[in-house]
Write a structure and sequence with these properties.
242 residues, alpha+beta, five-stranded antiparallel β-sheet, 12 strands, globular
């Protein structure tokens, strides 16, 4: 049995540029979370466009499960670049993207940017996506430690996003997982994960009775830690498997 819960909050900003969608038809389930960039509401347009493309492609049913995320991100990228030209907003309409598709006993994941997908097993983080950001690059170069990402001065400098011309696909498709390898999945924007540690995520997961309780209790921590910090938009989708 798969249960999910979706949460989004404007934080201390005037506009919520995060966009989330849950798509279910009984046989396959798809979850998408995007964090728009650009200001003046254009980030909101970009993130909303990507989730809308996922909605359309999901219901069109033309891609096989193992190709669906990659195919849809390519379609969304093309449409986003065209819309930038139409609105004369080439520098203002960009977004991160995360997508999870669960088909039968397989979990497919893809992403671009610094919105994250966490996979939990036995109340511990089994793995997470690696941000397409300057701080993540510095971690991989062993110049800073993982724990330093959240407060790094360049934490908002992204290396890959939707809405910038690619010579080749810039998104990352993770290796598929079996559903029995996953207890829970968390998809979240940086406004969410920057204000809660992985240790807190796991502690709350262990104590929660439902996926909604898990997300709502984590959101409480995010808002407590974000007080007086001009909080960013913060969004999350929680998925429980089994």
């Amino acid at each position: 049995m798969i249960t999910s819960y979706m949460y989004t909050n404007v934080g201390g900003r005037k506009v919520n540029e995060d966009s989330c969608i849950t798509l279910e038809d009984g046989k396959e389930k798809c979850y998408v979370l995007c964090d728009g960039l650009g200001g003046h509401g254009k980030g909101e347009v970009a993130s909303g466009m990507v989730t809308e493309v996922f909605d359309q492609c999901y219901h069109a049913g033309v891609s096989k499960p193992d190709q669906f995320i990659a195919d849809t991100l390519m379609v969304a990228q093309s449409m986003l670049l065209s819309e930038q030209i139409a609105q004369k907003a080439q520098d203002e309409m960009k977004t991160t993207a995360t997508a999870v598709l669960i088909s039968e006993d397989t979990v497919y994941r893809g992403y671009i940017g610094d919105s994250r997908i966490y996979v939990f097993k036995k109340n511990k983080v089994k793995e997470r996506t690696l941000d397409h950001s300057v701080p993540q690059m510095l971690v991989m170069a062993r110049e800073i430690k993982e724990k330093d990402i959240r407060n790094h001065p360049d934490r908002n400098r992204l290396l890959k996003v939707m809405g910038i011309e690619w010579e080749e696909p810039a998104f990352k498709i993770e290796e598929p997982l079996r559903t029995d390898e996953c207890q829970a999945i968390l998809m979240c924007s940086d406004g969410f994960w920057e204000l809660i540690t992985e240790k807190e995520m796991c502690k709350i997961l262990k104590k929660s009775n439902t996926v909604q309780e898990w997300i709502e209790k984590m959101a409480e921590v995010v808002h407590e830690n974000g007080k007086d910090k001009n909080m960013d938009n913060n969004s999350a989708i929680g998925i429980w498997i089994g």
